[in-house]
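[Primary structure, fold]
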Amino acid sequence: MLSCFEDRPLPAPGPPGPREGDWAALGAEHVPRGFRPGVDARAGEVPADGAPAQADHSAQALRFVEGCAWGAEFHTDAAGRPTSVRRRWVPSAGGRYPLQWHVDLPGEHLVANPETGGWRRFASAAWEELARRKAPGWTPPSVEEGTVRITLTALEQRTRATYGHRAPALVLADAAYAATFADAALGIRDLRLAGGAGEPGSADSARSSDETPSAPAGPWRAAGEEEVCSFTVHLAAGLAAGTSAETAAREGVFRLLASRRSPQPPELVAPARPAPARTAPACTAPARTLQESAVPHPGLGARFADQHWLDLCEEVELFHGAPTRQGVWDVHTRAARSLLEGLAAGRQARPVSGCTVSPEEAARGPVLLHALAWAPASRTALPAPGGAR
């Protein structure tokens, strides 16, 4: 689909596989949702969704990951019936959720459990021993006191089983949304994309290298053959959370993410009334176009893997970029910021990926890669959650 992934080997198609690696078989202790360092998780209370547990930065980081990796509620279908897809804070193409969340704190390594909302816990010494056995030559990064390190990897087969050759770009898109939301909620002081290669930066300026091997070093394959990770994203957050105003703003992001849902296509269809087209203000990145029209957008759904309901949407925000690994990342970080801005204004949107890009289009320059289908403001407050994104 995208030129930056054409040289990657494609494994044979198969079922999506497990939602997590078999870390328990490797000695991980299970701790329940609500676990906080230095607190007896079995006796402690789980904080309400959207509310950071404590002022401690590590507690906020764990609460953020819990909201992204698991959800207490489920998405619903068009009839309002709960589906089997949990309503998480971050979107994922097709509701496949391939991302695996690893959190390093001083003295311990945690892996989010997407089935229970809890954690697989290793003492740092046990994690380091596992790394020596399963990934010779790889040394776990040190975590200083007062810092948190989040590593995102992926079980790419969860997405590939549905989307085939489009999976690498879609998994990277999932990670870009997650990293951007983490930056907004936690304040990331260092981000490295693609197996640790690249230079420090924020979520919207992460550097990646197309020469980086697709399977990064580390014990990520240790939990079974299904744990084949296409990349890593390293996020480092410091204990110093900034000014009181910045801290309050980040706590507000928790509430916004907890309110996020994905509207069903019927909520997005334009009413039978005319409206002018307009273009969003220019920005330094490739231009994004906002279309508001009662007239269907012929051909738009066909560009996005035959999702023809897009042709009938009232408001669609389009994102263009280079068809490269870095371009995919940049486009989806811009979309994630736009989604956060919309949530702050009381709006809801459905992210749409999987746009087809021909070699001819790729050669001409920035191409259409992603869209946000916005629910009209009058329909945003509908009680039923949307589809699985």
